[in-house]
Amino acid sequence: MYSAIPSAHLVTSALKHFGVTQVVISPGSRNAPLIMNIAADEAFEAFSIVDERSAAFFALGRAQATKQAVALVCTSGSALLNYYPAIAEAYYSEIPLLVLSADRPPEKIDIGDGQTIRQPNVFASLLGDSFVLSLDRELMKDATDTNPSAQVYAENAKILSEALLSLQAKRIPVHINIPFEEPLYHQIEDSLDPVDWRSYSEAISPRHELATDADSGVMQALSNSKVMLLIGVWDPSDEEREQLRTLVQHTQALVLTETLSNTNGLNCIDSIDTLIAPLEGSAEGEALLEELKPDVILTIGGMVVSKKIKALLRSAKNLRHIHLGSSSALNTYGCLNGHYPLANFTQNTIEFPNNVQTYARFWLNYYNDLAPKREDFISLAPFSDFKAYSLVLEAIPTVYELHISNSSAIRYTQFFKTSAKKQWCNRGTSGIEGSASTAVGFSSVKMHEKTVLLTGDLSFFYDTNAYWNAYVSSSFRVIVINNSGGGIFRILPNAKRTKGFETFLETRHSKKAQEIAKHFEFDYQSAADTDSLAQALEGFFKEGKRPKVLEVFTPSDKNETVLFDYFKRLK
Ligand SMILES: Cc1ncc(C[n+]2csc(CCOP(=O)(O)OP(=O)(O)O)c2C)c(N)n1
């Protein structure tokens, strides 16, 4: 059975035509017409999640995993606002989410009706586009009438096609607000397929129009230069990996990557702070840091985690910045000069024979020479966050994909190699509120079931509703590094001097994950030293009947010392 409200059919028909078939639904009455149609139609893969904040991060995780847009359906009122953190994350990480909010008729807003807020364009600046459908009121006079008002239909169809084409082209969140009049639960036997969508297919330009040819100014900039290539958050295709290799060969660039660059096997500096931190604070080191500053910075991908490289590049004089690839070109270093497709720079005709080859060679040698001291320190390090992260990352099987929370987790993972298949983290806005829901959504896609979430304790407790749904697979794993609060604040310079540090910054607590694991029917293990952690990790990734949580208790009063000793040891 389907809803008797024609515009509900129009929406589901548009979703199918434009290929948005994954839908995450949160319960409510106002959205019942959409729920009925989605549930009745096998073309849709529908997921039920009560908490809208979690639902939206779950959708974000699925969109990451499938590289397809995912729709969200919620009722009217504050329900919609709970999508906002994930929308912001999706906006800055360039992930397509389609928000479908049900609403009351416009004349019922701000007159004292229940569960109403001003919904149209409520997400304002953090969207690709925002649309409002018209109410197909005429049709409500008789709920079984299936002969729609041609004009409202045509207008709404046009709006829907614009919205879905915008989603396809821009690949960032789009919101459609959909007013429904009561009765909401009347049903009809058949689905209406009211529109020939082929007549609504005006192409929309992509968000970034990239220059197809690098102009001579750029080519000049790249010649005779010290070129650094910095890769942020990236999930490259095989073709892009190949293009990257050619680019590095041609430009002689010094390559800096992060855990989230997902570029294993490159000859590069893959732990930026391991290189920079030990050079800080001594005259000799500072002179070397001057040498490290490039003439040209090429960037690929999204956000960069290392604050140190950002500070270094911002302090470089006469730097030129060129961004490559389809992601947004962000003017992070205040000197953005151009944005080109990655393929442009990998054609065989473009070579930079005069580039400063010694630059990359010197720094790679310098970095590689640190390896013995690094390995030595890591293997002998006392039990701490540092040691725990090193052991965990080493133990992740190659079939597992790794989701990492903000903030110590993503920072510590930069120091160690991991055999995980790929690494992910919500770095668009670096929030701590949705890492678990994102990981669960990601892992709900069959071929990504083997997902492990590596999280701090505050992030874990913040988002426990992530597990309040039917989509957590038995292969899903959570590792909580419990340092009794926001450990990141202990390693931030000077934060500890703040009055009320433990209460208001670190937010110290003695909560444990065990009861939560029990509540959501996860297996639970814990560790509190090197031996018990190594032992726990041995069986942790083995198949089991239920998902598993491993909670690792680390000494918050020692963690910072171990991290700073690491940098000292490399001086
Ligand atoms: C929604 C949101 N609120 C607050 C912050 C600020 N913040 C960044 S890291 C952090 C503490 C994280 O603590 P935890 O998850 O325990 O990880 P740890 O740093 O201890 O490893 C906070 C509160 C944020 N990033 N996002």
Bound molecules: thiamine diphosphate
* Main β-sheet, spatial strand arrangement: 3-2-4-5-7-6
Count up the helices. Answer: 21
Gyration radius from CA atoms, angstroms? 26 Å
How many E-type strands?
Answer: 19
Explained architecture:
This protein is α/β, with parallel strands linked by helices and 571 residues long. The chain folds into three domains: 2-187, Rossmann fold, CATH 3.40.50; 216-369, Rossmann fold (3-Layer(aba) Sandwich), CATH 3.40.50; 377-569, Thiamin diphosphate (ThDP)-binding fold, Pyr/PP domains (Rossmann fold, 3-Layer(aba) Sandwich), CATH 3.40.50. It is 36% helix and 15% strand. It is built from 21 helices and 19 strands. The protein has helices spanning 6-17, 32-40, 52-66, 84-93, 150-170, 216-222, 238-251, 272-276, 283-292, 307-314, 357-369, 371-380, 385-395, 408-412, 435-443, 457-462, 488-491, 501-506, 514-519, 530-540, 556-569, and strands at 2-3, 22-25, 45-48, 70-74, 97-103, 129-132, 174-179, 187-188, 227-231, 254-256, 296-300, 320-324, 336-340, 401-404, 423-425, 451-456, 477-482, 523-527, 548-553. The strands form four sheets. A six-stranded parallel beta sheet has the order 3-2-4-5-7-6, sandwiched between helices. It has a six-stranded parallel beta sheet with strand order 15-14-16-17-19-18, sandwiched between helices. The longest helix is centred in the first third of the chain and has 21 residues, at 150-170. Residues 140-145 have low confidence and may be disordered. The site of thiamine diphosphate has 18 residues, from helix 14 and helix 16.
